[in-house]
């Protein structure tokens, strides 16, 4: 029997509709958890975990870093992920953790780790659930990592790398995620970006997009995404029927992993 959806999450709602349908209607939970992600995600998970351990659990730097390396080294990346990317990102973990702790420790030293939140939105039948990275008494912070991109191979045979750039303003999808958390908690929203060479934290004081008016707009965007999924499921819960209504966009550079793309193409055959 097909699994029944019992909630949405911000990450669900931010996926393209066809990808969401394949992952959350066609695949079961076990299959979904088996989806492999690349070294960018592994880098983010490792850095994120170490920062949390240092700020919330009081772990010493070396122990937190050891945990980060273990997380990264045991990551099962998709076939075809370049080994040189794995090596490069591993080298950058310690610097990124240091930058993150330096950026966040004043406000979030001793903060609460990964608070689970749930919110109900008008017209949306299922709750939206998520986990906030860091919670202080009067604010919360969502932390994102930035990693360098692979550049061209140089004449001497070495690989060039494009430095990870910190954004001048938050990415829209991250603001949408933050809008859910702000609605759930009522706390002041912060959004941080961390790389191996620096970090930036956006707050309502330095970022117009984190002020109530714009976050209300983002929240309405997320409500609309949830309602469109809800309406789709009222047409049918049969993935084959739903595939006939959605464009899969198999050329999308991020969401379709090679391991599942062929299976998805079979589902979308007309």
Summarize the topology.
Layout: H1 10-13, H2 17-26, H3 29-33, H4 39-56, H5 61-73, H6 83-108, E1 112-119, E2 128-135, E3 139-145, E4 149-153, E5 159-162, H7 172-185, E6 188-195, E7 198-202, H8 212-235, H9 239-243, H10 258-267
Parallel strand pairs: 3-6
Antiparallel strand pairs: 1-2, 2-3, 4-5, 6-7
Helix pairs in contact: 4-5, 4-6, 5-6, 7-8
List keywords for this structure.
270 residues, alpha+beta, Lambda Exonuclease, Chain A, 5-stranded mixed β-sheet, two-stranded antiparallel sheet, 10 helices, 7 strands, 48% helix, globular
- Round the mean pLDDT to the nearest integer and report it: 94
Largest sheet composition: 5 strands, mixed
Gyration radius from CA atoms, angstroms: 20 Å
Uncertain stretches: none
The topology string of helices and strands comes to: HHHHHHEEEEEHEEHHH
The CATH architecture category equals: Alpha-Beta Complex
The helix tally amounts to: 10
Query: Outline, from the CA principal axes?
Result: globular
Major β-sheet strand ordering: 1-2-3-6-7
* DSSP E strands, number: 7
How many separate domains make up the residues? 1
Molecular structure report:
With 270 residues, this protein is an alpha+beta fold. The chain has one domain (28-249): Alpha-Beta Complex (Lambda Exonuclease, Chain A), CATH 3.90.320. 48% of the residues lie in helices and 17% in strands. It has helices spanning 10-13, 17-26, 29-33, 39-56, 61-73, 83-108, 172-185, 212-235, 239-243, 258-267, and strands at 112-119, 128-135, 139-145, 149-153, 159-162, 188-195, 198-202. A five-stranded mixed β-sheet has the order 1-2-3-6-7. Strand 1 (112-119) and strand 2 form a beta hairpin. The longest helix has 26 residues, at 83-108. The model has no long low-confidence stretch (mean pLDDT 94).
């Amino acid at each position: 029997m097909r699994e029944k959806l019992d909630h949405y999450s911000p990450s669900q709602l931010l996926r393209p509709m066809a990808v969401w349908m394949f992952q959350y209607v066609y695949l079961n939970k076990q299959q979904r958890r088996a989806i492999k992600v690349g070294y960018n995600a592994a880098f983010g998970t490792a850095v994120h975990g170490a920062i949390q351990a240092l700020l919330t659990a009081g772990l010493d730097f070396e122990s937190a870093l050891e945990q980060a390396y273990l997380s990264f080294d045991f990551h099962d990346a998709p076939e075809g992920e370049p080994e040189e990317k794995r090596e490069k990102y591993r080298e950058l973990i310690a610097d990124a953790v240091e930058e993150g702790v330096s950026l966040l420790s004043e406000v979030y030293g001793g903060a609460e780790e990964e608070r689970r939140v749930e919110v109900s939105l008008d017209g949306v039948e299922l709750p939206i659930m998520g986990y906030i990275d860091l919670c202080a008494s009067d604010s919360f912070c969502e932390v994102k990592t930035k990693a360098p991109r692979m550049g061209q191979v140089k004449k001497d045979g070495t690989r060039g790398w494009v430095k990870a750039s910190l954004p001048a303003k938050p990415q829209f999808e991250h603001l949408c995620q933050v809008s859910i958390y702000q609605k759930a908690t009522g706390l002041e929203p912060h959004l941080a970006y961390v790389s191996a060479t620096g970090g930036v934290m956006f707050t309502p004081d330095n970022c117009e997009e984190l002020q109530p008016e714009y976050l209300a707009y983002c929240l309405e965007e997320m409500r609309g995404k949830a309602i469109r999924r809800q309406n789709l499921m009222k047409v049918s819960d049969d993935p084959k029927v739903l595939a006939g209504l959605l464009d899969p966009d198999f050329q999308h550079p991020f969401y379709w992993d090679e391991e599942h793309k062929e299976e998805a193409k079979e589902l979308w055959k007309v």
